Amino acid sequence: MSSIADRLKNVSISASAAMTQRARELAAKGIKVVSLSSGEPDFATPVHAIEAAHAAALGGDTKYPPMDGTLALKTAISRKFKRDNNLDYDASQIIVSGGGKQVIFNAMLATCNPGDEIVIPTPSWVSYADIVKFAGGVPVAVPCFEKSGFKLRAEDLEAAITPRTKWLLLNFPNNPTGAACSRAEMAAIAEVMLRHPNVWILTDDIYEHLVYDDFEFCTIAEVEPRLHERVLTMNGVSKAYAMTGWRLGFCASGSKELIGAISNVNGQNSGGISTVVQAAAIAALNGPQDLLKERAAIYQERRDFVVDRLSGIDGLRCHKPEGAFYVYPNMASLIGKTTKGGRKIGSDVDFVMALVDEHHVATVQGAAYGMSPYFRISYATSMEMLREGCARIAQFCDEMR
């Protein structure tokens, strides 16, 4: 008899984490690997956030924290929602957790019964479906095709909703495609959801500040205030403020019943977030915001370089995304070819594994995100690494026969 719980049978290891680990293994052998697999900003945490954490520790703010976040942090989050999204939440409607992933995990555990369906526009972040399965729910993938800009179409959403649907899970700007919804596109999604009053909506807005070409971010509770009671708006400090290792996410909802249920789960699987981390997050949210646009401008320059470079490679087609820091090239034309090292390319999985083994560039297969034949590249790294990585990808593709 296995000692491992049945709930883990259908939960897989993150493909992006696995590829990052593969890159580390090669690097440990002395091989120079260009890692384009990790969605982690290469910028430093803002100095004022670090200083705030240091001051909190020196000042003795090192005791057990409130389970759902300090009042000072909740107040900063409330201001952030009003400033950036024109959403009104008070402290009782906000929960702080150990990263955005824990927010999603807690929400699913708090609401899902066996067989409940969660609609997930796909391609989607690798963890969404696994978290849903862990909670006993059933992920329902709704394909968002390249010809539609990898965006969720209202008619496809309508067709996916059934009497068993519990949640719609939105993530725009999107991981892995970088697609973002305009206000009109989000309004069309909201119109569908108004017709289904028993379905909750979770919006993962972690890439909110990473949009380009004067694109204006919007979130569904802002676009359609009539959904305010049914939306769980999630965000954090990891991507925008380059604070991935600090592990702090937060969420808010107009439904105190939902917030109460999530808080109950939060209290059972966490002792609250480190007080010094909360102090750093307060400083980030309340401090100067100019760095957000400055860094977005750098990401845009990187995006433009990568899209242009990949689009010039025979066998690849690269859609230009509106946000996040990923591109999602189509490699369908390379299926059936053989690499210089003698490996037959039958899928995007074959492609990324041959690429890392033969030319030492780490990317992630589109199959991990629910749509093939694509692969994901993160441009959250230096231009030097991007130039080297794209050059190696070009050589890898050019050598195929």
Topology:
Blueprint: H1 15-28, E1 34-35, H2 47-58, H3 71-85, E2 94-97, H4 100-111, E3 117-122, H5 126-134, E4 138-143, H6 154-160, E5 165-170, H7 183-194, E6 200-204, H8 220-223, E7 231-236, E8 249-253, H9 256-269, H10 275-286, H11 290-311, E9 326-327, H12 348-358, E10 361-362, E11 364-365, E12 375-378, H13 383-398
Parallel strand pairs: 1-10, 3-4, 3-5, 5-6, 6-7
Antiparallel strand pairs: 2-8, 7-8, 9-12, 11-12
Distance between the first and last residues' Cα: 49 Å
Uncertain spans: none
Number of helices: 13
Structural class: alpha/beta
Rg from Cα: 21 Å
Under the CATH scheme, the architecture of the largest domain is 3-Layer(aba) Sandwich
List keywords for this structure.
Aspartate Aminotransferase, domain 2; 2 domains; single chain; three-stranded antiparallel beta sheet; 12 strands; 13 helices; about 400 residues; alpha/beta; globular; seven-stranded mixed beta sheet; Aspartate Aminotransferase, domain 1
